Structure formats: C-alpha cells, structure tokens
TrEMBL record:
The keyword Glycoprotein applies. It is found in: Secreted, Cell wall. It is an enzyme of class 3 (hydrolase). The active site is at residue 199. It comes from Vigna unguiculata. This is Pectinesterase. The keyword Glycoprotein applies. The lineage of its organism: Eukaryota, Viridiplantae, Streptophyta, Embryophyta, Tracheophyta. GO terms for biological process: cell wall modification; pectin catabolic process. Pathway: Glycan metabolism; pectin degradation; 2-dehydro-3-deoxy-D-gluconate from pectin: step 1/5. Its main location: secreted. One of its GO terms (molecular function) is pectinesterase activity. It catalyses: [(1->4)-alpha-D-galacturonosyl methyl ester](n) + n H2O = [(1->4)-alpha-D-galacturonosyl](n) + n methanol + n H(+). Its EC number is 3.1.1.11.
C-alpha cells in the first residue's frame, strides 16, 4: 500500500470500507459503473485544472482552484484533485456553475475540516451553492469531536448542498451529527457511503440515493434517539423527498430510518437491506407535534432483520410497486435532462 499523508487516518478507513463493501455487494449489483472517464466523456469537457497537495499541479488548494474559475462560468471544467488529504474548507458559490470535481477515488482523495457550530451551514467542510456540479471519487469529512447531545456542539456538517442539478458518484461522507445537509434542489447520489449517528441525512431536497451504503455509528450518550434521515416538507405541492434505492443500512448503533421535520415529510426506502441497527418502530415523529396523516415514511420490498413489519410506527407505510414507481424513476428528479449518467 502506498504511503498516505500523516493526517489521513480516515482515508485508511475509507479504503477498508470501500473494499469490504464492494466485495460484499458485487454478487448482487452487476451493473454499469459510472467511472471518471465515462463522466468526462458524457460531459464533453476539454479543460482541466489540476490540484496536487505536493505542488505538482496548477494549485495546492482546492479552494484556490475553484476561485480561479471565472464568475458565471458557462463551460464545464474539471477540477482534478489528486490523491491526498486536503485540510481546508471549500465553497462553490452560486456564480461558479459547471464544475466537475474529480478525485482519485474516495479512499485516496479527501477534503476534511473540523468545526462545530450553532449554524449547520457555517460548520460545513464543503458548501455547494452553484447549479450543475458533478463530484466523483472524493471523501468528505467533518472531524469535529462529538459534543454534548442535543446541543450546537453536535452540528458538524461534512457537505452542504443547496443548488439545482448536483450529483455525486462514488463519494463518501463522514461525521456524526448532521453529516449531509441535502438542503434544496434536485440531487443524485450514486454508490456513495454515508456515515453518522443522528439526523445525518437532512434537509428538504428532491433526491435519489442509488445503491447507497449507510453506516450507523453508535452514540453512547443516547438510548435509541438517532435517525438516519430528517426530511422537511411543508405542503403537498412540494415535490421534494428522499428516495433510497437498492442500498444497505448497517452499523454499530440503533436508530430510526427517519423522523419527520415537517407535516408532509417524505422518505422512502426501496429494495434496501436493513440490518438490526434499525429499531422495530422504524420511524419517529419526534419534534413534530402535528398530525401524521400526511407524512410519507415508507418501505418497499426491503429485507433483513431491520425490515420486520411488526411494531412499525402506525403512520408508516409498506408500499406497493404501483405506489413507488414514480419515485424510483430517474424522472422523479428530471435526471434525463441533466445527469451525465444514471443507473
């Protein structure tokens, strides 16, 4: 194994997780792989900015490379982030669209920072606020230590996404509380690893997570209070929701699949393996004091010890194929109009 930078202990874990998960899942997921050359070809990019932590590129900083792209950019550009751990906060502002952040693999290229805050956005290691951003093969981490339960010390976002048409392929996200702030817009996550303990996928975006690997970290301070998702949807007209397709959920703690942050919260797990880390109730309306009649907390054709129907929350749904068809289609996020590749 090649030498890794001294600050990259989390990348070693990422490599091990990557190898274990892919060997375990290869037998039931023989599909097209959206690799870097395919994405580059589909996007038709002919300009590349190289970032190399050792000084063998155009920049040594990811943010410096992004800052070099003209405002209101209208042509796709690759920001190739070579292997290494880049300890910095990164922000892609709304006037920097059409960026392809291309790493060398989620076990080789990482962006990490350590910050907690009373403001989720302020804590984020990476903020994506521009439309049309594609990301491949990068690990993102907020390594802030776990603080006191239910306080601002826990808000340590790895990635904040608040723009239209953003997609991640073969990436990983690490934190404990509030790992992935998937706030607004149409998004697509393919073959990504997401790790956390409390509300670690949250926001109000319209998102498909295809073949996700979700790892639950045990929170010793709590007794089954964490949730994987905390989705906010305020009315029936909003199209947003979190859709998880053909993935797996496992880990060392006990959590809910989701909790409602709004009266129309919508989260669906489809054809997903659920380990015993999912508690029997499956879902919670903790912090939502209103009616549960319009909440869509559903499962379709899930399996595993955590998928047992007995004991599920009374408002949760065991869905039929007809119920989920519109959400399982890439058309749910209008993906055929903007994604370079979908699976």
């Amino acid at each position: 194994m090649p030498n890794l930078p001294s600050s990259s202990s989390f990348l070693l874990s990422a490599i091990l997780i990557f190898c274990i998960s892919h060997s375990a899942l290869a037998t039931n997921h023989a599909e097209t792989i959206a690799d870097s050359p395919m994405l580059t070809q589909k996007l038709g990019i002919n300009r590349t900015i190289k970032v190399d932590i050792n000084g063998n590129g155009d920049f040594t900083s990811v943010q410096a490379a992004i800052d070099s792209i003209p405002e209101d950019n209208s042509q796709w550009v690759i920001v190739h982030i070579r292997k290494g751990v880049y300890r910095e906060k990164v922000r892609i502002r709304s006037n920097k669209p059409y960026i392809f952040l291309r790493g060398n693999g989620r076990g080789r290229t990482g962006i990490t920072w350590s910050q907690s805050s009373t403001d989720n956005v302020a804590s984020a290691t990476v903020r994506i606020e521009a439309h049309d951003v594609i990301v491949f093969g990068i690990s993102f981490q907020n390594e802030a230590p776990t603080g006191r339960a239910y306080t601002s010390q826990n808000q340590s976002v790895a990635v904040y996404v608040a723009a239209e048409k953003v997609a991640f392929y073969h990436c990983s996200f690490y934190s404990t509380h509030n790992t992935l702030f998937d706030q607004k817009g149409r998004h697509y996550y393919a073959n990504c690893y997401i790790q956390g303990s409390i509300d670690f996928i949250f926001g109000r975006a319209r998102t498909i997570f295809y073949h996700p690997e979700i790892f639950v970290v045990d929170d010793k301070r709590l007794t089954v209070q964490g949730s994987i998702t905390a989705h906010n949807r305020e009315n029936a007209e909003e199209l947003n929701g979190y859709i998880f397709i053909k993935g797996m959920v496992y880990g060392t703690g006990a959590v809910y699949l989701g909790r409602a942050k709004g009266p129309y919260s919508r989260v669906i797990f489809s054809e997903t393996y659920l380990s015993k880390t999912i508690v029997p109730a499956g879902w919670t309306n903790w912090s939502h004091s209103g009616s549960t009649k319009n909440i869509v907390h559903g499962e379709y054709n899930c399996r595993g010890p955590g998928a047992v129907r007995e004991g599920r929350a009374p408002w949760s749904m065991q869905l039929t194929k007809k119920d989920v068809e519109q959400f399982l289609s890439i058309d749910y996020i209008d993906g055929k109009n903007w994604l370079p590749v979908w699976l």
